[in-house]
Amino acid sequence: MGFVPELGKSLPPPSIANRNSVWLAGVGWCSAMLHNAINHRPPLKSGVHRQFLLATIGWFIGYHVSKYENYTYAKLDRDMNEYVRLHPEEFPAKEKKTFAEIVEPFHPVR
Amino acid sequence: MTFSRLFSGAAFVSRVGSRSAFTSSKPDSANPNWLRVSLAFGSAAVLWGLLFKQHSTDVHEYKVVFRSCLSGMHLFVRFFLFPRLLALNSV
């Protein structure tokens, strides 16, 4: 939609089934069931069209939230990697020790 | 006991959890309002169609941009696309 700028078009889009979609669809469905319960109607069996519509709205919003989330994290990753590349002196490679050097001698007490 | 029963002797209370500010008639659950049902299902179908269309547009755009970037090994590709490539099986 209009939330992701042109730069984000190069990202792979989220699949139709994604975490945010499922969660927000569940939120919509539960809100429809809550609406039923408040009006003393059977929560699951009544107003199926309402439940379906609210779950759909949640799924739709969740897809765009996922897209925006992917774009935001990709931008942050890119900026962070650029900074690391431009300032290598701040990220020295850690010298690796073998386990033999770290482990203390073992004196069994039996 | 609801408060309304305490204050009025009449037995016209309908004992609903919420009241509408727009209608004064009791909600009739036996005869569904088919207009509203069809509107709800219709708008849900429209939303699903929009979603699938948007998804296919996004996939197409991504493939176009990726194919055009394949030739140039510049930073944009290295830092933006390649990490995402690893997660993608078929492009």
From TrEMBL, chain A:
It is found in: Mitochondrion inner membrane. It is a single-pass membrane protein. One of its GO terms (biological process) is mitochondrial electron transport, NADH to ubiquinone. Transmembrane segments: none annotated. Keywords: Electron transport, Membrane, Mitochondrion, Mitochondrion inner membrane, Respiratory chain, Transmembrane, Transmembrane helix, Transport. GO terms for cellular component: mitochondrial inner membrane. It comes from the Eukaryota. PANTHER family: NADH DEHYDROGENASE [UBIQUINONE] 1 SUBUNIT C2-RELATED, NADH-UBIQUINONE OXIDOREDUCTASE SUBUNIT B14.5B. Belongs to the complex I NDUFC2 subunit family. Accessory subunit of the mitochondrial membrane respiratory chain NADH dehydrogenase (Complex I), that is believed not to be involved in catalysis. Complex I functions in the transfer of electrons from NADH to the respiratory chain. The immediate electron acceptor for the enzyme is believed to be ubiquinone. This is NADH dehydrogenase [ubiquinone] 1 subunit C2. It comes from Gasterosteus aculeatus aculeatus.
From TrEMBL, chain B:
GO terms for cellular component: mitochondrial inner membrane; respiratory chain complex I. InterPro entries: NDUFC1 (IPR026192). Keywords: Electron transport, Membrane, Mitochondrion, Mitochondrion inner membrane, Respiratory chain, Transit peptide, Transmembrane, Transmembrane helix, Transport. It is found in: Mitochondrion inner membrane. Its main location: mitochondrion. The chain crosses the membrane at residues 34-52, 64-82. The keyword Membrane applies. It is a single-pass membrane protein. It comes from the Eukaryota. Pfam families: NADH_dh_m_C1 (PF15088). Belongs to the complex I NDUFC1 subunit family. Accessory subunit of the mitochondrial membrane respiratory chain NADH dehydrogenase (Complex I), that is believed not to be involved in catalysis. Complex I functions in the transfer of electrons from NADH to the respiratory chain. The immediate electron acceptor for the enzyme is believed to be ubiquinone. PANTHER family: NADH DEHYDROGENASE [UBIQUINONE] 1 SUBUNIT C1, MITOCHONDRIAL (PTHR17097:SF0), NADH-UBIQUINONE OXIDOREDUCTASE KFYI SUBUNIT (PTHR17097). Complex I is composed of 45 different subunits. This is NADH dehydrogenase [ubiquinone] 1 subunit C1, mitochondrial. It comes from Gasterosteus aculeatus aculeatus (three-spined stickleback).
